Amino acid sequence: MDKQLMKIADLLEKQALNQPDSLFIQTSTRKYSYLDVYHLVLRYSSYIHRHYQGKTFGLLMEDPFECIVSFLALIRCGKRVFLFNHKNVNLSRHYAEIYHCDVLLDSLPKDLDSHDGPSESSLCNESEICIFTSGTTADPKCVLHRYSQAIAHAKVSTKTLDFTSLSSWLLLLPLFHVSGLGILFRVLFSGGTIVLDDISTSMNFTHVSLVASQLSRFMSYHPTSSLDCLLLGGAKLQHKDIQEALSAGLPIYMGYGMTETFSHVSLTSLQSSSIDCSGQCLSHSLIKVIDGEIRVKSDSLFSGYLSPKGDLISPLDDDGFFNTHDLGTLKGSQLFVSGRADHMFISNGENISVESLEQLVLEDKHIQEFVIVPVEDSLRGHVGCAFSVTSYSEEELSFAVRKKILRFYSSLYLPKYLFIIHQHEYDFANSRDYFQQISSDYIEKKPQ
User: Taking the CB of residue 108, how many other CB atoms lie within 10 A of it?
Assistant: First the structure.
């Protein structure tokens, strides 16, 4: 760990002392300086110290401002904080119960102004941040980070993304996810501003993070932009969408990271790199590829997976590297991610990586969505079963898929089954597991 990071106790306290009147949080209706928020956090943390000694907390908050204030107060108190998905309340409450979360907060106290009391010293370095993985490839895991690991990420990413005290970041990603929480820590580390508003906001901002589903909507509201950085992440980033954004003059950055690494371990500007590149390895991290799988070691790497029994399980190897089970290659310090090892299957002795095939097919402007899952086959072991949202007919889709895949691969890589579905069913699915589950029903109903 960088020795300088260990000297930083409380980022909010530091900024409130160094630049008290600087703008920290801007909403559509109010502006809060670092000192404003610091006073709120002091009052709330004082209340927590008096009433909740020895408790663990969960945040289940829809309001981002209230979530930020609550999170910073709990961190200041040195608490273990679980961040839960407010969009799925029942499931979040279930996880809060099995992880023995003592107090679940869904809003700030109404009478916070009356909670004045003696100000305790910050215990940020004793705090623990618990974030759940998305669960797209397995059941969600509880990832435990220390405060210093979050700072390690913020230190290098703010420099790479040129985020300074004069910069502002529009928050469009949830704070219960590492992509949203990473933005908060970058803002705190640099002394910049976090903007809380909708994607259509006319407020000035220099930086924004988006997932694929938000990009076209963002471009419709901001066809021209004076942005310094548009950081793209998440699954299903289609080359044609990225190219369209680059052609519009947007400063696109791409990276690679996950919950376990507290966001990115690599970042790059696509204005100076290949559109396939997942970034240059950042200075706080080491990346290596063994047997095609990406392994990372980083100052921001998590402490371990927290079990419901309270055990901390470390999956690191003897050298401190974490096997991500993502597939990729290194070209110098540049990382190229090709997919998930979990998404590969063997057909007739060949390793089939579905994500490279999907990306090829999605180059066709008439195909909006395309996902391949493996199904058992008596002759070849496994074959591909594809689901698509498209304006093509079945015959046209089959022709287009063959044309795209056979440019680079043999016919063995073609999906054996091909089904057209509606956009609403694709949106409902939200994971490969869903398509895996329904594939047998679709195949059984397919006319012979």
Answer: 17
